[in-house]
Amino acid sequence: AQSVTQLGSRVSVSEGALVLLRCNYSSSVPPYLFWYVQYPNQGLQLLLKYTSAATLVKGINGFEAEFKKSETSFHLTKPSAHMSDAAEYFCAVISPGGYQKVTFGTGTKLQVIP
Amino acid sequence: KAGVTQTPRYLIKTRGQQVTLSCSPISGHRSVSWYQQTPGQGLQFLFEYFSETQRNKGNFPGRFSGRQFSNSRSEMNVSTLELGDSALYLCASSLGQGGEIYGYTFGSGTRLTVV
Question: Nearest CB to A43: which of B56, B103, B107?
């Protein structure tokens, strides 16, 4: 079985500060991992994905995430927060093997303070 | 290219009615998945279709059903609506089966309100 835990349902950062959103996964095999962003009244947009290539994954809008197998983590970071980063972020995991369900975390709402 | 299109964007229905939601995937995408998003339960997987066949199903009652057509468009039907069915229903398409390699592209969703 697979699961994903996002620590902190709400995170506040000042504009220009480091963004760190935490995601830990549980999977019996090395999974595929994703980060999505959702703006109000919108669907989810893929930020980045890890599919067993490089452990440091760069995504859109200056975000990146590092896969750490020893810590079963896939935290999302951005060096400098921008007001437009305010949104809800979802970590997702899917076990390889075809036709596996995607499991989403409960989401973290990022507030950027001017 | 056009993204994932969901219609309608907003819908208000009465308890006991049924509703059909539509999803047109990105051209060339053959996999379509449906999710229910609520403040209390978060994102919950409903089902996934690939080449007109249901490949996976979440833990929802039989009132929730879906289908996929030969052009990959998908519909989701909910019968005998309950107040708890009020949610944002999201459709996602993927190039490949299961979406683990390519990820999913989501539509903007259909906001269903049951009164």
Answer: B107
